């Protein structure tokens, strides 16, 4: 991770452009959104040569947009703000005050590393998600200098840091074994499953409308073969088990891609995170800009004495974009999470404060949605399996017990400095908000 002193300073009030290869990365980013429709139009559509022409025109249009953005995008670093200019026919100028910048992220994929460039993302608290800046792409040295300039000028603007910069201290590292455990305990694998079905549906929607039910029948028949051809509820339950195992394996892969080599460090009043297997990211934010803290603990993590620590800032972001720092520690020993919380929230008693429990009959409201879903699933299964699907209703008492335990664990605490909330049973969550960070209070009945 590059320190502030490693990068050469950028000249003030000098207009700078993106890297000459920026158009290539913009083009690749846009092709990700339109590649599947173009491929489907070219290879799976019907209508003749006009589809090839449409695909070619689409590719040319995306190329023009990418080159256009390169020649019309520029920025400069002023004494108290970052100024960004963009557009040709409709020009825009954005001023991002350094005091309003909450997160700075430097992202490098495999292709970025090949060309020694990087993407810089800036999240601010201006109240408009369009105020987020995405610079695709800058030369590596220039990107590091820009990040260092924003961090340094941000400190000067807030009058919270001395002139000298101390080397960052490593607070925690996440091992590969812990990431495997996190993947097994999460449901992130459903993201990959949903993306696969979306890919199939987008490549040939007409064929999917006919082959989708057939695919589910094929899966059911395969499971029936595994159960000696018994077409019953046992086959359905085995299908659910196999799907769950597949999702867990996919979850492990996603967590390794996202959080491999996770390192949490601190320098002065700044928190820094570096992680990623194929795409490496470096994200930075200040302690004072953290709005709330979240501790998560699934039942599997609890068995191995592990927890997760997440933070949220007031930075707005573009739709669909990830925050710069979300997981402060995606998974770590419980003692390490407690130490991190005590380091940044002195005096916090997040596990055993004076808890006030919610209404004892609140579980009745909580149990209604899952019972309705269970009844709906049973009805759908009975259309195919008949009365053999009715034993699914035996899960109703289990749903009631889980929701009663969830309601029994829910509680809140308010003291002179912080507001705390806990919820869940199998999946436990604690929320910590400092009272001075509360933006508003809403009562809904």
How would you describe what is shown here?
This protein is α+β, with helices and mostly antiparallel strands and 445 residues long. Helices cover 45% and strands 24% of the residues. It has 12 helices and 18 strands. A hairpin with an 8-residue loop joins β6 and β7. About 4% of the residues have low confidence.
Write the layout of secondary structure elements.
Elements: E1 16-17, H1 22-44, H2 49-72, E2 74-77, E3 81-86, E4 92-97, E5 101-108, H3 110-115, E6 117-124, E7 133-139, H4 140-158, E8 169-173, H5 176-185, H6 189-203, H7 205-226, H8 233-259, E9 263-267, E10 270-275, E11 280-286, E12 290-297, H9 299-303, E13 306-313, E14 327-333, H10 334-344, E15 356-357, H11 362-385, H12 396-409, E16 411-414, E17 418-423, E18 428-434
Antiparallel strand pairs: 1-2, 2-3, 3-4, 5-6, 5-11, 6-7, 8-9, 9-10, 10-11, 12-13, 12-18, 13-14, 15-16, 16-17, 17-18
Can you give me a brief rundown of this structure?
The chain is an alpha+beta fold and 445 residues long.
Q: Tell me how many strands there are.
A: 18
Which H/E pattern describes the elements? EHHEEEEHEEHEHHHHEEEEHEEHEHHEEE
The whole-angstrom Rg is 26 Å
Low-confidence segments, ≥5 residues, pLDDT <50? 157-164, 204-212
Report the end-to-end length measured between terminal Cα atoms: 49 Å
Structural class: alpha+beta
* Morphology call: globular
Compute the number of helices. 12
Characterize the main sheet: 7 strands, antiparallel
Mean of all residue-level pLDDT scores: 79
Spatial ordering of strands, largest sheet = 7-6-5-11-10-9-8
* Binned strand content: 15-25%
The helical percent reads 40-55%
């Amino acid at each position: 991770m590059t320190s502030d002193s490693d990068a050469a300073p950028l000249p003030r009030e000098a207009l700078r452009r993106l890297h000459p290869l920026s158009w290539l990365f913009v083009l690749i980013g846009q092709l990700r959104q339109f590649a599947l429709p173009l491929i489907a139009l070219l290879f799976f559509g019907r209508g003749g040569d006009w589809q090839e022409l449409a695909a070619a025109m689409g590719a040319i249009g995306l190329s023009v947009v990418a080159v256009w953005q390169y020649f019309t995008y520029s920025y400069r670093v002023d004494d108290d703000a970052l100024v960004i200019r963009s557009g040709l026919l409709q020009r825009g100028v954005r001023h991002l005050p350094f005091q309003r910048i909450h997160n700075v992220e430097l992202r490098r994929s495999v292709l970025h590393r090949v060309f020694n460039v990087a993407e810089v993302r800036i999240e601010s608290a201006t109240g408009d998600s369009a105020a987020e800046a995405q610079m695709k792409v800058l030369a590596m040295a220039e990107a590091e200098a820009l990040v260092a300039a924003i961090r340094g000028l941000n400190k000067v603007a807030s009058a919270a840091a001395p002139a000298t910069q101390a080397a960052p201290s490593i607070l925690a590292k996440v091992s590969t074994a812990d990431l495997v455990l996190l993947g097994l305990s999460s449901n992130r694998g459903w993201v990959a499953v949903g993306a696969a079905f979306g890919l199939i549906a987008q490549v040939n929607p007409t064929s999917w409308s006919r082959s989708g039910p057939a695919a589910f029948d094929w899966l059911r028949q395969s499971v029936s073969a595994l159960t000696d051809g018994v077409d019953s509820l046992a086959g359905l339950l085995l299908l659910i088990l196999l799907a769950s195992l597949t999702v867990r394996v996919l979850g492990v892969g996603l967590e390794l891609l996202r959080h491999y080599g996770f390192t949490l460090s601190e320098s002065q009043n700044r928190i820094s995170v570096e992680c990623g297997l194929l795409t490496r990211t470096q994200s930075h934010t200040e302690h004072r800009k953290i709005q709330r803290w979240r501790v998560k603990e699934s039942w599997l993590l609890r068995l191995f004495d592990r927890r997760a620590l997440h933070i949220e800032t007031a930075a707005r972001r573009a739709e669909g974009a990830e925050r710069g720092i979300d997981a402060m520690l995606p998974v770590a020993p419980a003692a390490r999470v407690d130490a991190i919380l005590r380091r940044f929230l002195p005096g916090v008693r997040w596990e055993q404060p004076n808890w006030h429990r919610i209404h004892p009959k609140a579980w009745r409201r909580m149990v209604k949605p899952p019972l309705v879903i269970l009844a709906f699933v049973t009805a759908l299964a009975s259309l195919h399996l008949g009365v053999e699907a009715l034993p699914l209703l035996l899960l109703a008492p289990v749903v009631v017990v889980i929701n009663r335990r969830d309601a029994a664990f829910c509680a809140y605490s308010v003291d002179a400095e912080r507001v705390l909330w806990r919820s869940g049973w199998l999946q436990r969550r604690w929320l910590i908000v400092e009272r001075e960070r509360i933006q508003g209070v809403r009562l809904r009945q």
